Hints:
The chain is an all-beta fold. It contains no helices and eleven strands. A hairpin with a 6-residue loop joins strand 5 (about 45-50) and strand 6 (about 60). The mean pLDDT is about 95.
Amino acid sequence: QVQLVESGGGPVQAGGSLRLSCQASGRIYSMLSMAWFRQAPGKEREGVAAIVPSFSPTYADSVKGRFTISKDDAKNTVSLQMNSLTPEDTAMYYCAARHGYAIEELSGDSYNNWGRGTQVTVSS
Length: 124
């Protein structure tokens, strides 16, 4: 089992930036695929960005060019830099991870470890 703890959420005005971080701990015995998901009230969970070992990051179309995912394997952390935020980005953001390769990087079914989430609220 891998424990994931997110941080960095909060309120921000439209056009602003936030940086989310996720710390993984526990039974980490191989490279992790890690991803960020979000879920707004009344909406389905959406894969936002993912980073799989040896592959380029993957982004949802809605965040391409605005969000950047990065991973520090030595520290078992993954970050999400979010720029040019809009009210549509308001959601609970969750970190997810799995050992090895996530075949469908932005599918929640590809991950078996989840954090509790951090709230991002963008005001207009």
